[in-house]
Amino acid sequence: MLILGLVVAAVLGPLYVWWQNDNPTVKRYGIGSAVAVIGAAATPFAMGRCAFNEGTSGVDHLLAYSLMAGGAWLALMIMQALFDRSDGKKSDSAAMTGEIRTGGFRLGWWVPWMLLSPTLIILIWFLYLPAVQTFTLSTKLTKLGAPKSVDVCFGNFTELLITDPWKLVAYPLLAIAAVYGARFWLGRSERGTWNRKGAEVASMFAMLSIFVAMYAMFSPGGGGQVAYRPVYLNTVIITVGIVAFGMIGGLAVAYLAFRKIRGGSLYRTFLIWPYAISPAVAGVLFFMIFDPTAGIFTHTMDVVFGIDVPNYRESAVLAQSSIILASGWKILGYNILFYLAGLQTVSTDQIEAAVIDGASSWQRFVKIVLPALSPITFFLLVTNLTYAFFEVYATIDFMTKGAPAGKTSVAIYEIIRIGVNNGDLGRGAAQSVLLFAAVIAVTVWQFQTSGKRVSYGGS
Amino acid sequence: MAEGLTPGVKRRTWIRGRQWPYHISLIVTAIVIAFPLLYAALIATQTNTEIFAFQMTPGSALQSNFDAVWFGRDFAGAMWNSTVQTILVTTGKTILALLAGLAFVYFKFPGKWIVFFLVLITLMMPTEVMILAMFRLVSGLGWQDTMAAIVVPFLASATGAFLFRQHFANLPAELLEAAQIDGASPVQFLTRVLIPLSWNVIAALFVIQFVYTWNMFLWPSLIIRDESKQVVQVALQTLTNIDGALTYGPLMLAAIIASIPPAIVFLLMQKPFMSGFAIGQQK
């Protein structure tokens, strides 16, 4: 089975070379084939070929093949970068690192290394080393503080997924097909027609189908499997909630506050200060507001509106909403700050022209201001996502501690619950790898999109 | 329209007609945003009895709440720990980032692009995704309950290195030529030429790192278990329970006290923070 994967890599490697290069030499086809095989073989051999042992399931094989594909792809990308360098295509490393044109100081070779060594030592020791250890831990069953550990290969991962390998292949493929189908339709449709509108709606649903496919791939629990599906769903709900609330609210307030007005900078200070508040303090403040016995929220609802609000820690919707509100409030200041800076760069000439053309203020906002802000929006989207993934931990810890029944236990909270509170390092590390993959996906998407879809305006 | 045609006139205001609707909506927005903190400030002055009676005027317990927090629970100690941690991390990070920026811009050496990528890739490696392995690693070093555990791993940052790289690359190259003619060493060049030209960037990085470090919660909650060594954000947690019951007043007061240092730093350094950020955004 392993051999089969390597043979496929040996064939696909040259194909990649043919696709990426104009007129590749025979030597390069050979290199491509070899590099693909090495990249594909790296992970299974590092893991002792455990996924193909006797008694392994189809899901194990599938995960091993995915890692092989990823390894081969990464190796080919590095190879292509080296090809481009030797072709003189993208060898401008001086411009990339910001090197000045004179080349700088001419001193011993060790001087720059000495300047960089503190940074490098800490990054390698406290970032790269734990990153590698997270991957090795994820293939083991090991208890916190216990010296013994058992190798379980992909066991910590397969128990998070559904058990049918065919469905595991089909769901992501269907989602990818939907995305490319919608993209094809978009390319075929004329701007401003109903056909185009249909294609736009279809591409929105196609993006959504990726999240649905992932939902379907995670195990609902039972039969010795871990119920990861609810954790995934909680993470998506709370993340989307925080990002939507924080960004829409931030833009709305910034759009109100950026105009020149007497006392403008004072107003701005009174709007952005929550930036300095910690997620923990945000949790404490909203813990007080929503407290079922002493909080102002429950009391006001009862006295003024006659509504008997249940304990927010016992209702999934209320618990999730309160986390979203607290975290969204905290990130609001940050978003207002950056939107205010962004709004200063919006061209007043364009606005004047639109006013003369009789555009309504809403049209001006949608057609001119929003596109001009898209680089800032995109930047904020990524920072807000990171915030909602990680910083939300402290807020949750103060407000709900994952209650009710784990409905506010998001990915990072679950990692600590499993890895530290239960002391199950291996299982916690496996969930960390999933979160790591999500962060990498967001970053790759950021790099791909920042050059393409985002408008950087005329200037 | 006439003012718009005059060169040199300051940016036109977009507000035509009355200003007071904007004033009112801004004041209302500011109050809504401030509400959680204002409410906490009210609670901080009250006893539990006053809180349960939903008294909307300042209560009688500010002094006793403060004593309970500051002396009873040694919140002062936690504040001190956070201050030491934050100062060490922000200072160390700034120095390391300055040195890295210097090496990236003013030196040419083989393997530079590999180092550059090594630093660049860490941008997509948040500590949180490897926190279990890091917990095992740092515990293995015997750093549990020490200041080193909450300082050393955070001394290097890709953000800082790239911020200074960007800033230095935009400075005129003649600076270096002049310094080389004077026979200045790299460190002299850094301290006498680059740093005086970089205060805005240093201030921006200082604000970001100060707020980030001061507000750190997850990592200290794992690696520091000794209450006397704990930082302020985690110490808040012990205040949710005083004498076996939840006392709201001291908790709210502590939350407010814990927010004062980052708020002061942020408000005082707003201007350099924004201009330093503008440098970071330049393409």
Query: What is the CATH class name of the largest domain in chain A?
Result: Mainly Alpha
The class by helix and strand makeup of chain A works out as mainly alpha
Low-confidence parts of chain B, pLDDT < 50 over ≥5 residues? 1-13, 279-283
**How many beta-strand segments of chain B?**
0
- What's the main sheet of chain A like? 2 strands, antiparallel
Beta content of chain B comes to under 5%
Kindly, what is the distance between the CA atoms of the first and last residues of chain A, rounded to a whole number of angstroms? Answer: 56 Å
- As an assembly, this protein is heterodimer
CATH topology of the largest domain in chain A: MetI-like fold
Radius of gyration of chain A: 26 Å
Number of helical regions of chain A: 17
Helix content of chain B: 55-70%
- In spatial order, strands of the major sheet of chain A run 1-2
String of helices and strands of chain A = HHHHHEEHHHHHHHHHHHH
How is the biggest beta sheet of chain B arranged? none
What is CATH's topology name of the domain at 77-247 and 258-281 in chain B? MetI-like fold
The CATH level-2 architecture of the domain at 77-247 and 258-281 in chain B is identified as Orthogonal Bundle
What order do the helices and strands of chain B follow?
HHHHHHHHHHHHHHHH
Tally of DSSP helical segments of chain B: 16
What does this structure look like?
- The complex is a heterodimer of chains A (459) and B (283).
- Chain A folds into 3 domains: 1-88, no CATH class; 162-217; 228-450, MetI-like fold.
- Chain A is globular, with a radius of gyration of 26 Å.
- Chain A has 17 helices and 2 strands.
- In chain A, strand 1 and strand 2 (149-151) form a beta hairpin.
- Mean pLDDT of chain A is 89; it is low at 455-459.
- Chain A has helices at residues 2-20, 26-46, 58-86, 93-97, 110-137, 155-158, 165-188, 194-217, 229-257, 264-272, 279-289, 296-305, 316-343, 348-356, 361-399, 411-421, 425-450; strands spanning 140-142, 149-151.
- With 459 residues, chain A is mainly α.
- Chain A has a two-stranded antiparallel ribbon.
- Helix content of chain A is 71%, strand content 1%.
- With 283 residues, chain B is mainly alpha-helical.
- Chain B has a domain at 77-247 and 258-281: Orthogonal Bundle (MetI-like fold).
- Helices cover 68% and strands 0% of the residues of chain B.
- Chain B is built from 16 helices and no strands.
- Chain B has helices at 2-5, 20-43, 48-52, 62-72, 75-106, 112-121, 131-140, 147-151, 158-169, 174-181, 186-194, 199-214, 218-223, 232-238, 248-268, 270-281.
- In chain B, helix 12 runs antiparallel to helix 15 and helix 12 crosses helix 16.
- Chain B is globular, with a radius of gyration of 24 Å.
- Mean pLDDT of chain B is 87; it is low at 1-13 and 279-283.
- At the A-B interface, helix 4, helix 5, helix 9, helix 10 and helix 11 of A face helix 2, helix 3, helix 5, helix 6 and helix 7 of B.
